[in-house]
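Subject: for your reference before the review

Hello V.,

The reviewers asked for a structural picture of the protein, and I figured it would be easier to keep everything in one thread rather than splitting it across files. Below is the amino acid sequence we used in the manuscript, unchanged from the supplementary table.
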Amino acid sequence: MTADLIKLELHKMSMKALKELACTYEIEAYPALMERLQTDPRSGAVSLSLSLEKTYKAHLKETDRLRRMKNIEMEYFQKGYRFIAGLDEVGRGPLAGPVVSSAVMMPEGSMIRFVNDSKKLSCTKRDELFEFIKDEALHIGTGIISPGRIDEINILNATKESMYMAINELAVSPELLLIDALRLEKAQIEQLPIIKGDEKCYAIAAASIFAKVTRDRIMDEYHEIYPEYHFRSNKGYGTKEHLDAIKKYGITPIHRLSFLGNFI
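And here is what came back from the structure prediction:
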C-alpha cells in the first residue's frame, strides 16, 4: 500500500479527501504518509501529519509495553514450552459474592492492544478486551467459589480452590502456570508466582480481565435480585451505600458471614 502512496499527488487532493485516505492505511504506513504530508504547504496537511505522528508514537509505546509484558512468556516459549497459562483471581475483598479465578492460555504471537491489569482499565475497555481474549485464547478455564464456601474454608483457601478449578477446566493441561503472587501447593505443574503479575505479565493480565468481567457480570445479575444493595455499582465491596443497605435490610444469601463482623 505504501508503494501506491508514492504515486498519489497528495497536494492536489482536498483536505477532506486526505483525511479519508489516511483512514484507509494501516498504522505501519503512517511514517511514509507523514513524510509525504510534510512536503505539503497547506496548514491542514501539517496538522494531519502531526495528528498521525501522535497516533503512531502512541502505537509504538503500546507495542513496546506489550513486548515487555510478554518477556516472561517468551522466555519459556523459546525454551520449547507450548501451553503456558496465566492465572489470576478477582473478589478476595468484597463483603458479598463469589471469588472468581481464570486460567488463560494465549498463543505465542498474541499481542492484544491494551491488555493490562484489569484494575487499570475502564469497564467498557474490559468488556471489549474480554471478547478479544475469548476469541484469541487457546484455552480458558474459570473457577467460581460461593460465599458459603468462602465462610467454610476462609478466603485464601477459597481463592486457591477457585484457581485449581480454573486449571481443571482447561481443555489442555498447562506446562507452566504464571500466577499473580500465589503458589498452589497441590498443583502438580511447574509454576512461577510473580508479584504484581497482572501488571508485569501478559497472560496474567489477560486472566485478570477475564476473571474481573466474569465476576462483574455475576454481581450485575445479583443486582437484579437484590437491587437495594446496589451490587451493579459496588460489586459487593463495602461501599457506604452497601453498608447502609446492610444496616437497613440485613444480609442476603450471597453475603460472606465471615466478612461482616459487627453486622451480624
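For the response letter, the relevant points are probably these. The mean pLDDT is 92. The radius of gyration is 24 Å.

Happy to draft the paragraph if you're swamped.

O.
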